[in-house]
Amino acid sequence: MAHCISRPFLQNSLRASNLARTRWTVTLSPYRRMSSSSKYEYLITSKPEPNVLLIQLNRPKALNALCSPLFKELNQAMKDADGDGSIGAMVLTGSEKAFAAGADIKEMKDKQFADVYKNRFLEDWAEMARISKPIIAAVSGYALGGGCELALMCDIILASPTAKFGQPEINLGVIPGGGGSQRLTRIIGKSRAMEMVLTGRTITAEEADKWGMISRVVGQGEGQVVKDAVAMAKEIADKSQIAVHAGKEVVNEAYETTMAEGLKYERRIFHGLFATNDQKEGMAAFAEKRKANFTHT
């Protein structure tokens, strides 16, 4: 929910923000064929591949701190992409310095209980769970507090060797409020989740990989994690969109039900795919030793 970075670090980061932003722009320049930055204040969107949407968080001076207007834009961008038949998968990233350093402390520090409770503060973060298309997080630098929670809300996490994950809210007198305690416990287990939540310790990309928190650590190089994430998104987007949606749905169902109920649910969804044109095309293409031409019907 929140980040906790020392004031000297933030000051140094702000001094370097213009340079960092310039470097990142150069890195992402091949991916800006369809930039829609004028549509959003806190996001930059593009289509690096015809069927892939790239969303870059764009608050460099605040290390991509997650204020409410940013999350409103993010929810809208993802909702629009979810309804766009030309897009098969999404990539979410930040900058080389920070995926997202946390929720915006300046926005939260003066809030009162009645305000956050009545207005359901952070509840809109859960809207990402209703997106049916795959979302891949490409994480470089700091993914702390809300930034860590945002990455965990994605379906796949690829991490740069520079990535650092943490839930340091305890240092601010609070706890994770965007799902960190619940998702971490399910992914890395009670003991490790307790360690992260109760000590606020930041872990490296290598530790996150070892703990099963991420899919993998990519190779060295500025922008490499975005390139790998886009390549993975394209690979997914080239499949049958119906089958991809079904695959995401049944994996997510595993977190919500028993093994017996999950197996029954998976089997019913599997059976249902035999009513699609893509199932007929995919199996015919395999039998005929040719590439499938999916129509997403």
From TrEMBL:
UniProt entry tagged with the keyword Lyase: yes
InterPro entries documented for this protein: ClpP/crotonase-like_dom_sf (IPR029045), Enoyl-CoA_hyd/isom_CS (IPR018376), Enoyl-CoA_hydra/iso (IPR001753), Enoyl-CoA_hydra_C (IPR014748)
One of the GO BP terms on file: fatty acid beta-oxidation
Sorted UniProt keywords: Fatty acid metabolism, Lipid metabolism, Lyase
Residues forming coiled coils: none
Segments crossing the lipid bilayer: none
CDD domains, A to Z: crotonase-like
Gene Ontology CC: mitochondrion
PROSITE patterns: ENOYL_COA_HYDRATASE
GO MF annotations in UniProt: enoyl-CoA hydratase activity
Family designation: Belongs to the enoyl-CoA hydratase/isomerase family.
Record's protein name: Probable enoyl-CoA hydratase, mitochondrial
Taxonomic source organism: Agaricus bisporus var. burnettii (strain JB137-S8 / ATCC MYA-4627 / FGSC 10392)
